Amino acid sequence: MKLDTYCQNTWCPGCPNFGILEAVKRAISELIEKDGKKRENFVLTCGIGCHGKNVDYLNLNSFYGLHGRCLCTAQGMKLANPNLKVIAFVGDGDIYNEGICHLIHAAKRNSDITVLVYDNRNFALTVSQFTATSPKGFKGSSTPKGSIEEPFNPLELMIASGATFIARGYALKIEHLKDLIKKAIEHKGFSFVEILQPCITFFDNRKFYEERIYELEEKDLSLKEKTLMKIRKWDYSDGEGARIPIGIFYQIQKPTFEELVLRS
Ligand code: SF4
After folding, report:
1. Which residue of 25, 30, 100, 175 lies most exposed, with the fewest beta carbons within 10 A?
2. Is residue 9 part of a domain?
3. Is 15 in the pocket of ligand 1 (CB under 6 A)?
4. Cβ proximity of 51 and 207 under 8 Å
Protein backbone atom coordinates (compact mmCIF):
# COMPACT_ATOMS: atom_id res chain seq x y z
CA MET A 1 0.00 0.00 0.00
CA LYS A 2 1.29 3.44 -0.87
CA LEU A 3 1.54 5.54 2.26
CA ASP A 4 4.15 8.02 0.95
CA THR A 5 3.48 11.74 0.75
CA TYR A 6 4.88 14.50 -1.44
CA CYS A 7 6.76 16.11 1.49
CA GLN A 8 10.48 16.56 1.08
CA ASN A 9 12.33 14.52 3.69
CA THR A 10 14.63 16.66 5.85
CA TRP A 11 16.20 14.01 8.10
CA CYS A 12 20.00 13.72 7.94
CA PRO A 13 20.92 11.30 5.14
CA GLY A 14 21.22 7.82 6.67
CA CYS A 15 19.27 8.65 9.84
CA PRO A 16 17.82 5.45 11.37
CA ASN A 17 14.48 7.29 11.48
CA PHE A 18 14.16 6.00 7.90
CA GLY A 19 14.20 2.45 9.25
CA ILE A 20 11.42 3.20 11.72
CA LEU A 21 9.35 4.93 9.07
CA GLU A 22 9.66 1.86 6.86
CA ALA A 23 8.66 -0.45 9.74
CA VAL A 24 5.60 1.71 10.48
CA LYS A 25 4.60 1.70 6.80
CA ARG A 26 4.91 -2.08 6.57
CA ALA A 27 2.96 -2.63 9.80
CA ILE A 28 0.06 -0.37 8.81
CA SER A 29 0.02 -1.66 5.22
CA GLU A 30 -0.27 -5.23 6.47
CA LEU A 31 -3.05 -4.33 8.89
CA ILE A 32 -4.97 -2.72 6.03
CA GLU A 33 -4.23 -5.15 3.20
CA LYS A 34 -4.08 -8.51 5.00
CA ASP A 35 -6.09 -7.95 8.14
CA GLY A 36 -8.86 -5.79 6.71
CA LYS A 37 -8.42 -2.72 8.92
CA LYS A 38 -9.75 0.48 7.38
CA ARG A 39 -7.26 3.11 6.33
CA GLU A 40 -9.51 5.93 7.56
CA ASN A 41 -9.52 4.41 11.04
CA PHE A 42 -5.81 5.07 11.56
CA VAL A 43 -4.87 8.42 13.00
CA LEU A 44 -1.40 9.64 13.92
CA THR A 45 -0.21 12.28 16.32
CA CYS A 46 3.26 13.37 17.35
CA GLY A 47 5.28 15.56 19.65
CA ILE A 48 8.14 17.83 18.66
CA GLY A 49 11.51 16.51 17.55
CA CYS A 50 13.07 14.74 14.58
CA HIS A 51 10.52 11.93 15.12
CA GLY A 52 7.63 14.37 14.63
CA LYS A 53 8.30 14.61 10.91
CA ASN A 54 6.93 11.08 10.54
CA VAL A 55 3.41 12.42 10.31
CA ASP A 56 4.44 14.49 7.27
CA TYR A 57 5.80 11.40 5.56
CA LEU A 58 2.77 9.12 6.03
CA ASN A 59 -0.37 9.60 4.01
CA LEU A 60 -2.79 9.07 6.90
CA ASN A 61 -4.89 11.40 9.03
CA SER A 62 -2.66 13.13 11.56
CA PHE A 63 -2.31 15.96 14.04
CA TYR A 64 0.89 17.68 15.20
CA GLY A 65 0.81 17.95 18.99
CA LEU A 66 2.66 20.19 21.39
CA HIS A 67 6.06 19.31 22.78
CA GLY A 68 5.54 16.47 25.26
CA ARG A 69 1.75 16.76 25.15
CA CYS A 70 0.66 14.60 22.23
CA LEU A 71 -0.60 11.81 24.49
CA CYS A 72 -3.33 14.20 25.66
CA THR A 73 -4.33 14.62 22.02
CA ALA A 74 -4.13 10.88 21.43
CA GLN A 75 -6.36 10.07 24.40
CA GLY A 76 -8.87 12.72 23.35
CA MET A 77 -9.04 11.24 19.85
CA LYS A 78 -9.64 7.75 21.19
CA LEU A 79 -12.30 8.88 23.62
CA ALA A 80 -14.12 10.88 20.95
CA ASN A 81 -14.08 8.00 18.47
CA PRO A 82 -13.27 4.58 19.98
CA ASN A 83 -13.16 3.03 16.48
CA LEU A 84 -9.90 4.79 15.74
CA LYS A 85 -6.46 3.18 15.94
CA VAL A 86 -4.52 6.04 17.49
CA ILE A 87 -0.73 5.97 17.13
CA ALA A 88 1.42 8.55 18.92
CA PHE A 89 4.99 9.20 17.77
CA VAL A 90 7.10 10.66 20.53
CA GLY A 91 10.79 11.24 21.20
CA ASP A 92 12.78 10.59 24.36
CA GLY A 93 13.30 14.28 25.16
CA ASP A 94 9.71 14.90 24.18
CA ILE A 95 8.08 12.28 26.41
CA TYR A 96 10.66 11.25 29.04
CA ASN A 97 11.52 14.87 29.84
CA GLU A 98 8.88 17.37 28.67
CA GLY A 99 5.79 15.21 28.91
CA ILE A 100 6.60 12.43 31.34
CA CYS A 101 3.51 13.06 33.49
CA HIS A 102 1.26 12.42 30.48
CA LEU A 103 3.06 9.17 29.69
CA ILE A 104 2.69 7.86 33.24
CA HIS A 105 -1.01 8.70 33.47
CA ALA A 106 -1.91 7.37 30.01
CA ALA A 107 -0.28 4.05 31.00
CA LYS A 108 -1.93 4.08 34.43
CA ARG A 109 -5.42 4.48 33.01
CA ASN A 110 -4.75 1.94 30.22
CA SER A 111 -5.84 4.26 27.46
CA ASP A 112 -6.22 2.24 24.26
CA ILE A 113 -3.51 4.02 22.26
CA THR A 114 -0.15 2.99 20.82
CA VAL A 115 2.95 4.97 21.81
CA LEU A 116 6.12 4.64 19.71
CA VAL A 117 9.13 6.26 21.38
CA TYR A 118 11.96 7.26 19.04
CA ASP A 119 14.70 7.11 21.65
CA ASN A 120 17.90 8.59 20.24
CA ARG A 121 18.96 9.53 23.77
CA ASN A 122 19.35 13.24 23.14
CA PHE A 123 17.30 16.29 22.07
CA ALA A 124 18.55 15.98 18.49
CA LEU A 125 16.38 18.59 16.75
CA THR A 126 17.74 21.32 19.04
CA VAL A 127 21.33 20.16 18.49
CA SER A 128 21.87 17.70 21.26
CA GLN A 129 21.01 18.40 24.85
CA PHE A 130 20.96 15.42 27.24
CA THR A 131 17.69 13.61 28.01
CA ALA A 132 16.48 11.17 30.66
CA THR A 133 17.98 8.23 28.74
CA SER A 134 21.35 9.79 27.81
CA PRO A 135 24.12 7.75 29.42
CA LYS A 136 26.19 9.25 32.20
CA GLY A 137 29.09 11.13 30.63
CA PHE A 138 27.07 12.04 27.51
CA LYS A 139 28.66 15.06 25.82
CA GLY A 140 26.15 17.35 24.12
CA SER A 141 25.59 21.07 23.75
CA SER A 142 24.24 21.44 27.31
CA THR A 143 26.76 19.03 28.86
CA PRO A 144 30.09 19.74 27.11
CA LYS A 145 32.02 18.10 29.96
CA GLY A 146 29.69 15.11 30.09
CA SER A 147 26.36 14.57 31.85
CA ILE A 148 26.69 13.81 35.54
CA GLU A 149 23.25 12.12 35.70
CA GLU A 150 22.46 8.41 35.46
CA PRO A 151 19.83 7.51 32.81
CA PHE A 152 16.56 5.93 33.84
CA ASN A 153 15.03 2.77 32.40
CA PRO A 154 11.77 3.70 30.65
CA LEU A 155 10.51 0.10 30.52
CA GLU A 156 10.77 -0.14 34.30
CA LEU A 157 8.80 3.08 34.59
CA MET A 158 6.13 1.70 32.26
CA ILE A 159 5.59 -1.52 34.16
CA ALA A 160 5.36 0.43 37.41
CA SER A 161 2.83 2.78 35.81
CA GLY A 162 0.47 0.03 34.59
CA ALA A 163 1.16 -0.27 30.84
CA THR A 164 -0.45 -3.44 29.47
CA PHE A 165 1.92 -3.92 26.49
CA ILE A 166 5.64 -3.18 26.73
CA ALA A 167 8.15 -3.80 23.96
CA ARG A 168 11.53 -2.62 22.78
CA GLY A 169 12.78 -2.63 19.18
CA TYR A 170 15.77 -1.42 17.22
CA ALA A 171 15.43 1.05 14.36
CA LEU A 172 17.69 -0.93 12.03
CA LYS A 173 16.02 -4.33 12.57
CA ILE A 174 13.13 -3.29 10.39
CA GLU A 175 11.17 -6.52 9.99
CA HIS A 176 11.42 -7.33 13.70
CA LEU A 177 10.33 -3.78 14.53
CA LYS A 178 7.44 -4.04 12.06
CA ASP A 179 6.15 -7.11 13.92
CA LEU A 180 6.38 -5.32 17.28
CA ILE A 181 4.54 -2.27 15.97
CA LYS A 182 1.82 -4.41 14.43
CA LYS A 183 1.28 -6.31 17.68
CA ALA A 184 1.27 -3.05 19.64
CA ILE A 185 -1.42 -1.60 17.37
CA GLU A 186 -3.48 -4.78 17.64
CA HIS A 187 -3.22 -4.80 21.46
CA LYS A 188 -6.34 -3.60 23.25
CA GLY A 189 -5.07 -1.16 25.87
CA PHE A 190 -2.03 1.01 26.37
CA SER A 191 0.80 -0.25 24.16
CA PHE A 192 4.30 1.12 24.51
CA VAL A 193 7.18 0.45 22.12
CA GLU A 194 10.56 1.88 23.02
CA ILE A 195 12.65 2.11 19.82
CA LEU A 196 16.42 2.38 20.13
CA GLN A 197 17.29 4.82 17.40
CA PRO A 198 20.90 5.89 16.92
CA CYS A 199 21.30 9.55 15.96
CA ILE A 200 24.11 9.43 13.45
CA THR A 201 24.78 13.16 13.75
CA PHE A 202 24.90 13.61 17.54
CA PHE A 203 25.04 10.16 19.15
CA ASP A 204 26.01 7.39 16.80
CA ASN A 205 25.81 4.28 18.97
CA ARG A 206 25.02 1.78 16.18
CA LYS A 207 28.10 -0.34 16.95
CA PHE A 208 27.30 -0.39 20.67
CA TYR A 209 23.77 -1.62 20.00
CA GLU A 210 24.61 -4.07 17.26
CA GLU A 211 27.20 -5.84 19.39
CA ARG A 212 24.76 -6.26 22.29
CA ILE A 213 21.21 -6.63 21.02
CA TYR A 214 19.47 -10.01 21.13
CA GLU A 215 15.87 -11.06 20.57
CA LEU A 216 13.70 -12.22 23.45
CA GLU A 217 11.58 -15.35 23.24
CA GLU A 218 7.91 -14.56 23.66
CA LYS A 219 7.04 -16.40 26.84
CA ASP A 220 5.86 -15.58 30.35
CA LEU A 221 4.55 -12.25 29.06
CA SER A 222 2.05 -11.78 31.88
CA LEU A 223 4.42 -12.41 34.80
CA LYS A 224 5.48 -9.10 36.28
CA GLU A 225 8.47 -10.38 38.27
CA LYS A 226 9.92 -12.19 35.24
CA THR A 227 9.30 -9.12 33.11
CA LEU A 228 11.20 -6.97 35.58
CA MET A 229 14.15 -9.35 35.45
CA LYS A 230 14.19 -9.08 31.65
CA ILE A 231 13.84 -5.31 31.78
CA ARG A 232 16.73 -5.00 34.26
CA LYS A 233 19.13 -6.88 31.98
CA TRP A 234 20.12 -3.44 30.70
CA ASP A 235 19.95 -0.19 32.68
CA TYR A 236 20.66 2.20 29.77
CA SER A 237 24.23 2.74 30.90
CA ASP A 238 26.93 2.24 28.28
CA GLY A 239 28.90 -0.32 30.26
CA GLU A 240 31.01 -2.72 28.22
CA GLY A 241 29.36 -5.88 29.55
CA ALA A 242 25.80 -4.87 28.75
CA ARG A 243 23.50 -7.12 26.69
CA ILE A 244 20.31 -5.56 25.36
CA PRO A 245 17.12 -7.60 24.92
CA ILE A 246 14.57 -6.52 22.31
CA GLY A 247 11.08 -7.88 21.69
CA ILE A 248 7.86 -7.99 23.70
CA PHE A 249 8.50 -7.92 27.45
CA TYR A 250 4.98 -7.81 28.86
CA GLN A 251 1.37 -8.14 27.75
CA ILE A 252 -1.80 -8.47 29.79
CA GLN A 253 -5.47 -7.69 29.23
CA LYS A 254 -7.60 -5.46 31.38
CA PRO A 255 -10.45 -3.00 30.72
CA THR A 256 -9.40 0.12 28.88
CA PHE A 257 -9.98 3.68 30.04
CA GLU A 258 -12.35 4.34 27.16
CA GLU A 259 -14.45 1.24 27.89
CA LEU A 260 -14.81 2.27 31.52
CA VAL A 261 -15.63 5.91 30.73
CA LEU A 262 -18.12 5.17 27.98
CA ARG A 263 -19.82 2.44 30.01
CA SER A 264 -20.39 4.66 33.03
FE1 SF4 B 1 18.29 11.70 12.65
FE2 SF4 B 1 19.88 12.72 14.53
FE3 SF4 B 1 19.71 13.88 12.13
FE4 SF4 B 1 17.65 14.00 13.83
S5 SF4 B 1 19.69 14.93 14.10
S6 SF4 B 1 17.52 13.56 11.62
S7 SF4 B 1 17.77 11.97 14.82
S8 SF4 B 1 20.53 11.81 12.57
Report:
1. 175
2. no
3. yes
4. no
